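hey so u asked for the seq, here:
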Amino acid sequence: MVEPAVAISEKEAPSEPDAAEKKTNFKSKFAKLAQQKTTTSSLSINELTKEIAKTKEELAAEEYTSDSRETYSESEFIAAWKTLAERIRDSGNEGSSIVYAAMITRTPDLSTNFQIDLAVDNKSQTEELMDHRTEIHDYLRKSLNNGGIEVTFRVEKDQKKRKAYTDEEKFSRMLEINPSLLRLKNELSLDFI
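ran it, structure tokens below
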């Protein structure tokens, strides 16, 4: 048995696009890409020459150069140091309370060649100060107009601040404050230590 031939119309038959159609499809896709807007930044002469109002701090920062080596008094340094400590405390950043406590507990030692040495109580304070070192240097150098300022930190255990725990330690501390207590102890024959 012979199967009848089924006629397929031209609309149903899949046909390969010819070269002309491929070329027009490519051109239309390329035209669509060219029409898409891309964001690019451009400079304008008006924007570059426009005057911008600047704060006093910004103007001072522009005038500052790292080659400046202006001298400053100890009182000027202490004023800048306290302002910086308060600024760090008010920032509310992580570790700012530790840095503030370390900065106000002891007065930094000013030495030659604009070297500043700050004694701290423990390694934790040293680490937090090192994390804020750039901020400390920037502020001090700009406010005192001296690019040679260098701050160093060292751990110094203060024996005077050590808490007295035993009776002997407590009595020794009391004797440092009032030496006449020893005479009182001897006269009353107190034997608690």
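The mean pLDDT is 78. The CA atoms of residues 182 and 188 lie 10 Å apart.
lmk if thats what u needed
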